[in-house]
Amino acid sequence: MGTLPQRQRVGAYAVILRDDRILLSRLSERVTRDELWTLPGGGLDHGEDPRDAVVREIHEETGLDAMVGPEARVYSAHLPGAWRDGRRVDAHALRIVYDGWVPVDAPEPRVVEVDGSTAEAAWVPVASVLDGTVPVAPLVLESLRDHRPARHQRLAAYALVVRDEHLLLTRISPRGFHSGSWTLPGGGIDHGEPPRVALEREVAEECGIACEVGDLLDVHDLHFGGTAPSGRDEDFHGVHLIFEATVPDGAEPVVAETDGTTDAVAWVPLAEVGSAGRPVLDLVTHALAVRSARQRPRTR
């Protein structure tokens, strides 16, 4: 057969997860006659930045506008005798794989590029990939094995405001984690921002009223993973500073910030907190438990 012509190709791809599914592209018959799914992505054009290439390829293959993280893994595959463009070659493939994500409200994937290497795009259950039900290229399994969720730690301040046996609560909008649940007013602390100043700002944005921040009641934290509001697969750790706070007598809250993570605010009777019709986050029950313990008379 003699020496095969050498062919080296550099491609950029992305692992895009949403809960228990992964975004994949099915290769067209011009690439393989057998059903085979792979990560969305493809070859770099000459002089093209890999991050630009993977965003372009994802749009062509799935119709979705993706974002990719700053870090990547590189996989190398040497394929002597591979079939490329109608002939046998000594192929060497370098694959740059990024962590990618698309907005949670993105439309269903669809192939944009006509007569390309992709025949179909879809969200595929990860379990079906791992158990072999869906045939995938080795790159998919290698990338899933090495994938780690993006780590995100967030420091936030919250206000426990009780007035006439009612608790001031805000409801999380679809733009936030745990949408539909109720929580204490407050939010993230900007870099360099004093926590009490941050809390005053957040209460004004979420409730439309000024608050006077009192003593630090406790520090609460929460660690969980899943699809973030951005669409990214995240390992999230929230650290929450809980302050006692007061608002002016007669102040009636109203959501002041539009398109934020709060879509409702209300004074809720303490007896109704955590009821079936008004689910609350653990932050709320924790804060009330600490408050109750502090008010309990001490015994010798």
From TrEMBL:
Coiled coil regions in record: none
GO molecular function: hydrolase activity
The keyword Hydrolase belongs to this UniProt entry's keyword annotation: yes
Keywords, ordered alphabetically: Hydrolase
Pfam family, one: NUDIX
InterPro entries per record: Nudix_hydrolase, NUDIX_hydrolase-like_dom_sf, NUDIX_hydrolase_CS, NUDIX_hydrolase_dom
CDD domains: NUDIX_Hydrolase
Residue ranges annotated for the Nudix hydrolase domain, each copy included: 7-146, 152-290
Gene3D superfamilies listed in its UniProt record: Nucleoside Triphosphate Pyrophosphohydrolase (3.90.79.10)
Family affiliation: Belongs to the Nudix hydrolase family.
The protein, known as: NUDIX domain-containing protein
